[in-house]
Amino acid sequence: MKVNIPTPLRQYAEKRDAVDVPAKTVGEALSELVARHPDLRKHLYTSDGKLRSFVNVYLNDEDVRYLADKEATIVSDNDSLSIVPSIAGGSTHWRCK
Amino acid sequence: MLKISQPDYAALRKHGEETYPHECCGVLLGKMDDGVRVVKETVRCGNTRSDSPENRYNIDPQELIPAQRKAREQGMDIIGFYHSHPDHPARWSNTDLQEAHWFACSYVITSVEMGIASRTHSFVLAGVGEEDKRFEDENIEVA
Q1: Where are the domains of chain A?
Q2: Can you give the residue range of the structural domain that contains B97?
Q3: Which of A7, A42, A97 sits opposite B91 (nearest CB)?
Q4: What is the CATH number of the domain that holds B48?
Q5: Tens digits of per-residue pLDDT, B49-86?
Q6: Is A83 exposed, middle or buried (0-12, 13-18, 19+ CB in 10 A)?
């Protein structure tokens, strides 16, 4: 299946915008991705192996966190996985540099 | 440097005026060209922070999926984001930095004072990880 890599993480994946990996589940796809590109690991996972809170993973158009089987969800070669770091912020507590 | 066309620059500033007193937000699609981020298209997004939209913004990742797909199909990348600061300076806040995770991308901020867009500044998220990330000033060239 195809794993889409967001702009800021491509430098850790040989500058590729997508990586094809063999996988039967979402979890296997992510494991294979970091096995092939180990530098991605610290950007995706905490030191205790959990996905970082700001890293969103979508199977096609579905947030994996809301799928019944989460990372154990079965995938096919035609599915695509997208890694999407969160985008947020706001003006509170602004400060001048 | 961030290069952006006058229509796109006007569009992102107008977006901030339209959503005032709430923060607006959107995506910048384009290309990196020899260290210069060149904006080819701006994509408006909704602000999901309905609990505090006047001083917080959040883009639903689901909105990023089609934007990312469109960029890829047209040979572009997501090169940055924009949002507004209603009645606050066009400077990054601690919240902006804490919530920023797209390294080497532009974060464009427009101050909207009493409903009128005033200053617009851009900052690049620099560093190699969460531990050393920082915003650096980025010049904007409007052509």
Answers
A1: 2-85
A2: 2-142
A3: A97
A4: 3.40.140.10
A5: 999 999 999 999 999 999 999 999 999 999 999 999 99
A6: buried
Distance CA A6, CA A50 (A): 19
Q: Specify the CATH number of the domain A2-85.
A: 3.10.20.30
State the total domains in chain B: 1
**CA–CA dist A31, A25 (Å, integer):** 10
Q: Which pLDDT tens digit goes with each residue over A46-65? A: 999 999 999 999 999 999 99
Q: In this structure, what token pair is assigned to residue B92?
A: 């990054």
Q: Do residues A12 and A40 make contact, with C-beta atoms less than 8 angstroms apart?
A: yes
Give the B-side interface with A, CB within 8 Å.
Answer: 23, 25, 27, 49, 52, 55-59, 61-62, 64-65, 68, 72, 77-79, 81, 83, 85-86, 88-89, 91-105, 107, 125, 129, 135, 137
Kindly identify which residue of chain B lies nearest to residue A5, measuring between CA atoms: B68
* ipTM score: 0.91
